[in-house]
Amino acid sequence: MIRGLHIAKTGMLTQQRRQENIANNIVNANTPGFKKATAAIAKDRDLFLHRLNDEVLRTSFGNIDKKPKVGPLGTGVFVDETLVNFNTGSLIETNNPLDLAIQGSGFFTVEGNGQTFLTRDGVFTIDNQGYIVNSDGYYLLGHNGRINLSGSEITIKENGEIYVDGNYIDTLQITTVQNPHSLSKLGMNLFTVTDRTILGGPQGVIRQGFIEGSNVDLAEEMVELISTLRAYEANQKVIQTHDELLGKAVNEIASVR
Fold first, then answer.
1. In this predicted structure, what is the pLDDT of residue 129?
2. Where would I find the Flagellar basal body rod protein N-terminal domain in this sequence (predicted)?
3. DSSP 135
């Protein structure tokens, strides 16, 4: 009976994690370049049960266990990992020369707090020192480092080359990853490489005056949320039922008259 409480508890905790993940997807449905994440659920190790009191058949070839196996008993579930969907979102035209989108593979490379990060969020501005930065103040990087602009007409070509008033300035540092699922997802729409990340591969096309929308499907997320809530409630009812049975065991079966 206590095992049943434990299994239901793991179910509730897992559904809670799913709910938090879905809620984060919904909140960021309008965040440029956001990639939805899905909680991957795995089951804990099984216990294999068999009957205890059956005989052991003794033969000249050795003892044969006659106890039939009852079968496996699950011990619960857990969130094994969070999987990020890297499908490209729809491109939205803004006509802002500092709004950029990558049509295809690749990530913008930004620098902040002494570290470099990857992002698909292409909403950029120019700070008071003339550098291209994102909404969190992280510097957009080119092949020569931080990109400083001084001029009026900014042109960014499909291959990432940057021109100001017709003069070549730099080329965007687009990082391509062969196995994007190896990236570590951080907050603020940022990713970092890991030991498993393999860099390289074909680069997508840079679209100036566009931003990439998130790849979150709100209708799909709402369906998942309802399913998660129902699964949570089902596990909650299991715990309530076990609690009632334990109460009867203590107050009725075990009472001394």
1. 94
2. 7-35
3. T
Q: Measured between alpha carbons, how far is 174 from 1 in angstroms, rounded to an integer?
A: 56
In this structure, what token pair is assigned to residue 216? 């979150």
Q: Are 195 and 204 in contact (CB under 8 A)?
A: no
The model's pTM: 0.81
DSSP symbol at 29 = T
How do beta strands 205-208 and 100-103 pair?
Answer: antiparallel
Which residues 6+ apart lie within 8 Å of 16 measured at CB? 232
Measured in Å, how far apart are the chain's first and last C-alpha atoms? 25
Q: What is the mean pLDDT of residues 48-60?
A: 62
Q: What distances in angstroms separate CA 90 from CA 29, 99, 134, one per listed residue?
A: 12, 14, 20
Q: How far is CA 218 from CA 160, 185, 247, in A?
A: 32, 21, 43
Count other Cβ atoms within 10 Å, centred on residue 185.
13
What would the mean pLDDT of 17-35 be, rounded to a whole number?
96
For tokens 């496996």, the residue is: 72
Structural domain spans, the chain? 2-85+217-253, 91-212
User: Residues, the chain, total?
Assistant: 257
> Are 6 and 44 within 8 A, CB to CB?
no
Residues 199, 185: Cα–Cα separation, whole Å: 16
pLDDT surpassing 60 at residue 1? no
Average pLDDT on 219-224 reads 96
pLDDT more than 70, % of the chain: 88
Partners of 254 in the β-ladder: none
C-alpha–C-alpha distance, residues 90 and 71, integer Å: 49
